[in-house]
Design a protein that fits this description.
The protein has 157 residues and is an alpha+beta fold. The chain is built from 3 helices and 5 strands, in the order βββββααα. It has 2 domains: 80 residues; 71 residues. The chain has a 5-stranded antiparallel sheet.
């Protein structure tokens, strides 16, 4: 896992520790970590005290690769901070995007509700149409029956 770390040299014996500051969770997502110290062999770290590094650290806290973080930090400054992006501005954008997402969800739910209502009304209209057709057939049959000679003979008697 990739960490932003700081070199700490302690004592006269030159004990070197790597203080883990933040951890990369995704390509552009970093999370501050609880202060963890990873011991290093003094001769394996050609960087001075206080230097910020990018450190590839395995799950068993073995440092696999160290790299000066200067170029990485300068890229962040150039891409984000020089464009006027601030953490507060990014937070506002995230909130706006979340509000937009919630609004779209509500609109989608409303459209779904309306679609269900329209379907129910369509079914009611179909039922009414079927009832009207049955009534029409019934009335036509009754009308035919009234016009039949046999019906007229029975009513005249």
């Amino acid at each position: 896992m990739l960490y932003l770390a700081q070199v700490q040299r302690k004592g006269s014996e030159g004990e070197v520790l790597l203080k883990l500051l933040a951890c990369q969770k995704a390509e552009h997502t970093w999370v501050a970590v609880k202060e963890e110290l990873v011991p290093l062999a003094a001769d394996s770290v050609p960087f001075g005290d206080g230097v910020l590094l990018l450190a590839e650290v395995s799950s068993d806290h073995q440092v696999q690769h160290l790299e000066d973080a200067k170029d990485w930090l300068m890229t962040i400054v150039e891409q984000y901070l020089s464009a006027g992006l601030s953490p507060a501005m990014l937070k506002e954008e995230v909130q706006r995007a979340e509000q937009w997402r919630q609004s779209l969800t509500l609109q989608s739910q409303e459209l779904g509700r309306r679609a269900l209502e329209m379907e129910a009304r369509r079914e009611q209209i179909q039922d009414l149409e079927e009832n009207l057709k049955r009534e029409k057939k019934s009335l036509e049959a009754l009308h035919r029956e009234e016009k039949s000679p046999q019906y007229q003979a029975n009513t005249n008697s």
